[in-house]
Structure formats: C-alpha cells, structure tokens
Amino acid sequence: MRESLTATADLVRFALRRDRVKLPIWVGAIGLGMLYAVSVLPTVYKTPEERQVRARLMDSPSATMMSGPGYGLDDYTLGAMITNEMVLWLAVPAAMMSVFLVVRHTRAEEETGRAELIRSAVVGRHAAPVAALIVALIANAGIAVLTTLAMLSGDLAVTDSVAVGIGIGLTGLVFAGVATVTAQLTEHARAASSMAMAVVGGAFLLRAIGDAAEPGGSLVSWLSPLAWIQQMRPFVELRWWPMLLSVAVTGLTVGGAYALSGRRDVGAGLVPPRLGRADAAPSLSTPFALAFRQQRVALVGWSIGLFIFAVATGSLSGSVTEAAAESPEMTKIFAANGQEPTDGFFARMALFFALMIAAFAITSVLRLRSEERTGHAEAVLATAVSRRRWISSWLGFTTAASAFLLLVSGLGVGLGAVSGGSGAGVIGEVLLATIAYLPPVVVVIGLTAALFGLRPGVAVWAWLLIVYAFFFGMFGALLELPDVVADLSPFNHLTVMPLDRIEALPLILLAAIAAALLMIGRTTFERRDLDVP
Amino acid sequence: MTAALEINQLQKSFGQVKALDGLDLVVRPGQVAGFLGPNGAGKSTTIRVLLGLLRADSGYVEVLGLHPWDDAVELHRRLAYVPGDVNLWPNLTGGEAIDLLCRLRGGADPARKAELLERFELDPTKKGRTYSKGNRQKVALVAALAANVELLVLDEPTSGLDPLMETVFQQCIAEAKAAGRSVLLSSHILAEVEKLCDTVTIIRSGRAVQAGTLAELRHLTRTTITATVDAAPGRLAALPGVHDLRLTDDVVTFDVDHDQLAPVVQALGALGVRSLNSAPPSLEQLFLRQYGDELVAEEVSA
C-alpha cells in the first residue's frame, strides 16, 4: 500500500501548480457568492416583516424546488434565509469544481497519454488518484473556510456558520468521490465528467422533488447529497449528524473507485466505447451541418434545462406579484419602470433567460477557437470551403440556436404562468417579450466573433460582458448606479413588458451594432493567419 | 502551365521568428517532389502558405496557376491535403469524417472510399477520439486519396503507420503518379522519399539548401567503395577526393568525390583488386551532410 502511493506529495504539488489560476478562481468565486448574499440580503430585507413576506414566497412547491426545504420559515432570520436559499447555489458550484478537478487530474491525464509518462517514472499505482483527491480536499477546505468567514462577516452565529461552511465543502468532496468512480468507467474525460455531472443533476432533481413533496423534505430528499447540508438545519435547530452521510458516501465512492481501478489497465475504461456509422448521413455535407453536429447534444441539453427552469419560474409569477404588493424593496426590483409587478416579473425573467442564452452563445462562438486550435479548422479550410463560409456557418448556427432557446424559454415561462393561474393570453405576451432580446444576444455573438477575428487569444474575454450585463441587469436597480454605467450593457436598453412598451429604435440600433460586430469578426478572420496547432 | 507549384523567395515571420527566409520550391506536373528537412525547418509553414492558411510576407507563390490566398476555394477544389498531425472530431466516426471532408471538397466517390478503407485496413465505425495516431493518419489519407484532384499535398503522411501500411501508401502514391497527379511529399523518412520521389528539395532554417533530381543530387556527393586488395592501399589516402579511408585486414573502405572517381579507380586497379563493391550515396548521406554542416556550424558558434 505504501509503495503504491510513492510520489503522491510531488503529484499534489504538481497539480496545485497546474491549477494555480483555476482553483483560486473557483474557490474565490464561491466565497464571494456567500459574501455577496451576506451583505446584500440585509439591505433588501431590512425588517423581520419584510423577511416574513419573503418566507411566504418560499413556502410554495415551485420556490422550494429552486431553493431549500424551508426550515425556519416561521422566524425567517438572515441565517435561515441564507441556508434555505443560497447554500444550494454554492454547493452545486463546489460539486462542479470537484468533478472537473478530479477528472482533469485522473482520466484526462490518462486519455492524453501523459499519465503513461508519469506512471513510468517512480510513481505508485494509486498516487495520481490519491493526489487528485487531496487537491480536491484542499480546494473544498478553502471553500469551507471562505464561506464561513463570509458568514462571520455578517455577524452570524459562529457554530452554525462553521456547520454551513463545512457542509458546503463536504458536498464538494462527495462529488469528487463520484468523479473518481466515473473516471474508472470510461476511457474519455468528457464522458467521465458528463457522467459525474449527470449525478449532480440527478441529485439536484431528487432534492427538488423530495423537498417539494413535503415541507422540510421527504424521504426522497435524503437520497440526494445536495440535501444534506440543509438537513443540518443550521441557524434553526443545528444538528451535525447529516454531515456523517457526506463523509460516508465520500469514503464509499473512493473505496469503490479503488476496487474498480484494480480491474483495468492504464488508459482503459470498464465500459467499452460504442461504434458508430461507417458513412456520414447525406445531410452532413456543409460547414453549417458540421457546426450543428458538434453542438447538437449541447443544444438539446440547454433546451430541456431552460424549459424546465422556465416552467418552474413561470409558475412563481402569482406568488411574486402578491409578495411585491407587500414589500417596497420587491416593488423596487419588479416594478422599476413603473410597470405592474406582474409585467415587471415577466420582464425580469425574459432578461434572465436572455442572459443565460447569451452565455450559451458565447460557448458556441468560442468553439470556433477550439476548432482552430485543434486543427479541425485547418482540415475544413483546406477543402473548398472559404473562410467566410466557415465562420458565417458557425455564427449563423449560433444565432439560430439562440433564437430557438429564447423561444423555448419564453414558451416555458408562459406555460408555467398559466399553470400558476394566469390567463392563456400570457403565453403569447411572454413569448414575444423574450424573443425581443434576440438583438442584444446577437450583439454578444458579434462581440465574441470580433474578438476571435482580431485576436483569437482574447476571445474568452467576451465573458466579461455577460458578467457585467448580469450584474447590472439583475441588481442595478438596487445599487442606484448612474445610468451610463448600466447602459454599457446591451441588455439594458429594452423594456419588454407590457408589449406596447417595446420601442423600435433600440432594437434597430442593437441590430445594427450586432451586424457591424459580426462583419468585423468575419473580415478580420478572413485577413489573418490561421492559428494552427 | 509549366509548374504544378512554384515558390520563389518566400518569406514568412512569426513575430521575431523567421520561419521562411527566401525559400524556393518547384513541383513539375505529374511529378512526385520530396520535401525534406529537420524538425522546425519550415516544412509545415511552407505547406500552410501553399494552402492559403497563412499569408506570405513576401515572395511569389503559385499553385496550379492560382494564388493560394486569393483563390483558396478554387484551388482547394483541385488539391487534397493531409496534415502532419491529424486531429479528428471526437464525436464523429472515421467514416463520417472522410465523407464530410470529401463532400466539402466537392465530390465523394463511395466505391473509391470503400477500396481505400480495405487497403488501409481501417475500421470506419470508430469514433474519432478512439483512433490511434496511425489510424487517424489513415483517415486523413483515405479522405485525400479518394479525391479526384490534380495535386496531393502531404505533410509527413506516414508518421505513425506500420511498415505494411507504408507499403500500401507507397503503392497509392505510385498509382496517383501514374494517373498524372502531382505530389508534394514532406517527410523525414528518407527511404520513402528515395523510393517515391522524382525530385528532392532539402530545406534548413527556412531556405532550400539542395534541390534537384535524385541523380543530380547524388552527383554532388560521394560514392562509397569497398574493395579487397592485394597491395597495401596507403597511397590511396593521399589522393585528392578520397575521404574516411578505413582498412580491415585486406578490405579497404572509403568515400570518393564524384569528380575524382576516374583517377581513384585507376589507382585502385593498380593495387590488384580481388572484389569490388561501389554504393551510390543514399539520401541519408545527403541529408546528414547537410544537417552535419549545421551541427558543425553550431559547434563553431558555440
């Protein structure tokens, strides 16, 4: 056993060195998320009465699905609020970070053949997976410490804050364990992280269903590792023992991975890869078809995810409107432009989904970059496909896919609203309001394309625009910032509800800006050297 | 049309790094041209300029009578390319990638694809990410060889192939030549170039240092002679043009410059020759001579 761990410490240092940028960003962002909640929530909900209004809003199945089981709704303190509403949204990123981290340092290394190089040196059989787990432990410990400190900065109870911090960290570790198992099953890093992420998704769904079934959670909730922190009931009636479940599952998964790893060769998986078709379908004969084929799975996943999310949020519309009538701060958020609260809510949701879809659009345009770096673009551009046709196909696909996703989201919110008691007419209204956000989404596509054309290395900076737009779009009204600052976001120029508030001029201007940016992207790409591997 | 491909004084820099520094290269129609050079000499850069993927800083480039940057699409319809490092789409099968590339070029021939798949013993149903390096190479080769084009541009096409598959590849190139196609074959497998190519260009540090037919290049270098002689061969070493003379018992081995061959053979005859073996210089020696100079120069500058 001792020999099989030779050089583990060196590999840990090596992994930390390789992740010296990635991990601090993940850990820091999760810590900041908690700090943000701790500092902003008290300014929005100043009095116990306002918090009780919020608690009533949380006391519906659809709200429970997106937050927590609802302990402490009777006396909704800041701590109870954070545990009920924020913790899930910090534990999920911790789980994602852990999955990517473990797969990156185990299966991805084997797939690229780098693991062979390492294992042929004086390195023990189990050193690499153990090192990956130690790094995951370090990162999740960092998250535990930062989130705890963030809560303490808001003068929350020390013991309960520590419990929440450790709980988030342990949830991350559970999924690190899950990823070590999936990394044994398949030969491919992407498949291994997809499987582990499917487990995260399944855990999310189980907790949502379980918690929605009964106030405080039902038996189904307990099947989900994401439910266990909230079941510790911090800031209400703290109990530590659900934490043991996390520890036990981490131990079991790691043990299982250990047993599985003994049954396979370096580089091999336990699930044999599937074969595909020998000839391409007749449709696979254009760059557009290739772009669609590359993004097909992602597009289906986004459609399903956004639709479910849209229906869930749409069904909240009734209770939000009621709550807004009682809280001046809520009115400020949802009726910022002198709208009816219901209209304000739908407008907010349209903006929210447009921002999510803009994120999809960026990942889709950035695929141009990875196609170029891997040499796939070289292979295509050495055939009778012009650069203009190649980049236009990708951008055209991205625009069409974004429009489709806007449609799916708008339809989902509308259907959800109808299920929550609104009249059927709302479906068409919400649908149009959501689709009105296509021009700003295309501005984001154009900006990413222009960066890709001008300096491919900086294309990823397009994400900053989304972060900016998200921040000011969602919270700008609360921060009372000068208009100029918020107007830099292309999403800040539309008032989409009620529909007769939609103005033609901003839409036309945004469309013109989008067209100009797309043109810049295309011509600069046509004129520069291909960045070949 | 005089040349399938012509490059004159081509310059290309990446920032401070000068990748190509006045390169000349010609491929005549219907010929197989070898393009030899050590790693980093600029072979792949040259090929990417020929394909219009990189833009030349200066110099003249014409491929099949077209300008590769301005007429890229028209040109690519008439040529096929195999990159040096083939990277397939992970979620497409090999068969799908072959079909896609053929269709994007403007025409696919299913019968030709099936024949090549069989000859290269390639399973087209596996996903791109599951192929070994050699099999990825085969996918790109099948996609290129299945095309009915005038020019094949091949960047180290046999790297990763086993010797059996190299033979198949050589047959395919011979067939392409018989069908009147021109081929530019970059390689550092010298035996392959020697077997396949009509002309050879050796490049180093972005410049052609030797170019011509194999016969012409051999003329520039030395023949190796091994002989069993009666008399002591000491005086041979003193003759001009004789190099590296070694004696084992009564067997003498030495290299001789081509222009000094006649007097050396006369002198050898006077020694009483019992057996004689003369070998033409291999491309390997040509290559090593070029490369060796570089090593010497490096030592001097160091």
From TrEMBL, chain A:
The chain crosses the membrane at residues 23-45, 86-106, 127-150, 162-183, 195-213, 240-260, 299-325, 345-366, 394-418, 430-454, 461-482, 502-520. The keyword Cell cycle does not apply. The keyword Transmembrane applies. It comes from the Bacteria. Keywords: Membrane, Transmembrane, Transmembrane helix. This is ABC-2 type transport system permease protein.
TrEMBL record, chain B:
One of its GO terms (biological process) is response to antibiotic. It holds the Pfam family DrrA1-3_C. Keywords: Antibiotic resistance, ATP-binding, Nucleotide-binding, Transport. SMART domains: AAA. Belongs to the ABC transporter superfamily. PANTHER family: ABC TRANSPORTER ATP-BINDING PROTEIN, ABC TRANSPORTER ATP-BINDING PROTEIN NATA. This is ABC-2 type transport system ATP-binding protein.
